[in-house]
Task: inverse folding
């Protein structure tokens, strides 16, 4: 199924708004998590954890779901496909990882917001959990910046499946194959480190804060 140019532009506008909106909301979440962990003012600590729960459910989760849905529709409705180009496939895997991280961590965020809605949180309380939320926000922020960069640069060319499709005479695929550059393996390594960081922060979270 190929979309009309008008529908494609509409979906791309929605996709970029959701995805870059997700990045912006995570930046605000990171600022709140840092304030919640480091501020000397009990009022600011309390306000930060209340705001984090609000921003997760009212902005971050809808932006995440919107990005994934519009991304999938775009992939299946344009000649990009979902498995033909590495840049789309890597974005898909990174977004799935980001979604898992998000939904696993909504519980500790709501737990802290629940306490903050009842009373002040002292500086020494639940430090492991509060630190873990900062680490998760940093990991999510880096992941989203990497995904945005991949969307603009579109590196790494066609997958094996994409090459096969190309050979089967899908003429559109030929236009999109950029020549391979020498820096790509480094980006792949950086992405690999990012994913490992992701997992380590998550496992540490189990050790330090527990959820
Ligand atoms: C946080 C995650 C994501 C971000 C930040 C993001 C960002 C973007 C951006 C900025 C563009 C425009 C690129 C351009 O026009 O040069 C784009 C296009 C696109 N994205 Fe994403 N994206 C994300 C997730 C996804 C996912 C999960 C998929 C697929 C499942 C996807 C599929 C696509 C496709 C197919 C296009 C090209 C659309 C077209 O040419 O009409 N994206 N994305």
Result:
């Amino acid at each position: 199924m190929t979309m009309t140019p008008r529908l494609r532009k509409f979906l791309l506008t929605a996709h970029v708004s959701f995805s870059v909106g997700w990045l912006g909301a995570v930046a605000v979440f990171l600022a709140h998590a840092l304030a919640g962990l480091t501020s000397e003012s009990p009022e600011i600590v309390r306000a930060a954890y209340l705001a984090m729960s609000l921003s997760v459910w009212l902005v971050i989760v809808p932006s995440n779901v919107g990005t994934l849905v519009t991304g999938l529709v775009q992939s299946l409705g344009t000649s990009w496909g979902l498995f033909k180009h590495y840049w789309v496939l890597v974005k898909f895997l990174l977004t799935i990882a980001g979604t898992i991280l998000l939904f696993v961590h909504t519980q500790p965020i709501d737990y802290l917001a629940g306490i903050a809605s009842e009373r002040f949180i002292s500086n020494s309380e639940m430090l492991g959990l509060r630190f873990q939320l900062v680490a998760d926000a940093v990991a999510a922020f880096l992941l989203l910046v990497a995904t945005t960069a991949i969307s603009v640069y579109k590196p790494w060319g066609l997958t094996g499946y994409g090459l096969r499709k190309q050979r089967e005479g899908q003429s559109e695929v030929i236009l999109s194959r950029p020549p391979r550059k020498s820096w790509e393996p480094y980006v792949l390594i950086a992405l690999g480190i990012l994913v490992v960081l992701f997992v380590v922060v998550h496992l540490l979270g189990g050790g330090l804060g527990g959820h």
Remarks:
- Residues 42-77 form the longest helix (36 residues).
- DSSP finds seven helices and no strands in the chain.
- Residues 8, 12, 15-16, 19, 22, 67-68, 71-72, 74-75, 78, 80, 82, 88, 91-92, 95, 144, 147-148, 151-152 surround protoporphyrin IX containing FE (CB under 6 Å).
- The chain has a mean pLDDT of 85.
